[in-house]
Amino acid sequence: MADLSPPFKNHSSTTTITDLNEDSLAHCARYLSLQDVSNMATTCRSLKRIAYSDSIWQRFFRERWPRETLDGSFQTSGIREAYLARRTTLQQFKFSDPVVADFYTTNAKPIDHILLEKDETIFFSQGSLIRMVKIANLLSGSVSLVELNDHNARITCMRLFSLAETSLFRSESERKGNILVTSSSDHSIRLWWKGSCQRCLRGHNGAVSTLSDKLLGDDSGKILASGGEDGTIRLWSLSSSGKSRQHALKATFYGHEKPVNLMSVAGHRKSLLATISKDSKVRVWDTAASSSVRSSCCVGMTSVSGAPVNMKCHESLLYVASGTSVVAIDLRTMEKVIRAAICEPKLNAFDVLPSKSLVCTGGTGKAILWDIRRNQGILKPEPVAEMDGHVGPVTLLYMDPYKIVMGGPDDVYINVWETDTARKANSLVCSQDERSSTNLGCSAMAVNGCQIITGGYCRRGFLRFRDFSNASCPILEFEDSKASKFWNAQTYDSDCSDG
């Protein structure tokens, strides 16, 4: 048989992308997105060196902040470092000129809950009333409120879930954006989209007190979990076919003897749901094993001391804040493996940042930062920093890799601290009563990247929205920035650096 293979078969050579000269590669990379350049930097050392080129990052800097000029510092550190440094300071709210928009409500009730959909919509509740306002309209002064008033009792919980995670709509064009889910003391759960109620879920024999922080299950069918004053956990199908109550309610779990306060979905198994009741009893449920009314789906039990404050899952660990302490429970064994924090005389708020092994607790007059790794096996944990100077109880607490934001009903300021150093970055006036010119404390807060919205109340509700994304006037270092007590700073910084 004749050999039909190409005559050049044995003379072919392998050419890779790294065979191109660096200038050509850098020129091509200038057309990539920021995410693509970041991915490029993780492939090999030679491509990482190209991905860090000034010509590439100069384009990103100009596109992100077209009105800003690069100072001389980049000549020694590089434009990439200048880009990242500016992004960090914006995330930490270290500027005095954010875009600010205020809004007074007509409802004479406190603002209970706020959700901030970045660059899109603000949702907030007062009593049984939910309102939504577009951020663009708020900034332009043409505020057009949409009222969601189908509930007839106080809103107890609000969540935003991506429509792409659900099968509520069949059309791909309709499955963009988020859906708002609310629970109420009127025994119902409602799903909202584009300003109207798409579904009403009923089944609890009492007020619905909490909703799962994430959806359960795999891509074939997402499940929403709810907990109620009746002590039950109920699972609801978020599918287009579950329009009736009988079809939407997938299972009911019994076991808690007191009202269910909080719930969180495990990170290592999306079918595991952790719940805690008013009597501080913790239960873990395997929702994948449910098909009807069951109590046997409980796969783990334990208890903590003190009244529940908050709980969050990360991978196989469940962090529970209650009473005066924060403990970490291994969901695989239900053993308390870490006592992460002690906040005396009372714990009011809690957040955890697993990527940096940090826990933050809100007490009276201050917040305290704890390093989870240092407290393993220690009966009495030692804090790494105290952020004091706050007025009254710290009841609102938010933490991300850049900042810690805290507030409370008695303090007129929202205080912002750097996560890695516990230095104060900024203090923001929460709200103001225009009739008496007196400042108000903060009743609710939401943070999303460079944006923050706070809510206060005097004779009526007040919202203040700030966006630091394009701020340009850095604030001076706070004179009281050393007020935070930081221990072993050098060791801690090296331990928690991102590399």
Largest sheet: 5 strands, mixed
What is the structural class? mainly beta
Number of strands: 36
Please identify the top-level CATH class of one domain: Mainly Alpha
Distance between the termini: 61 Å
Give the strand line-up of the largest sheet.
Answer: 10-11-12-13-17
Low-confidence stretches: 489-499
- CATH architecture classification name of one domain: Up-down Bundle
Mean pLDDT comes to 86
| Helix percentage range | 10-25%
Supply Rg: 26 Å
Overall outline? globular
- Kindly identify the CATH topology of one domain: Monooxygenase
Strand content: 35-45%
Tally of helical runs: 9
Structural account:
This protein has a domain at 16-91: Up-down Bundle (Monooxygenase), CATH 1.20.1280. The protein is 14% helix and 40% strand. The protein is built from nine helices and 36 strands. The strands form nine sheets. A five-stranded mixed sheet has the order 10-11-12-13-17. Strands 23-24-25-26-36 form a five-stranded antiparallel sheet, with no helix packed on it. Strand 33 and strand 34 (451-457) form a beta hairpin.
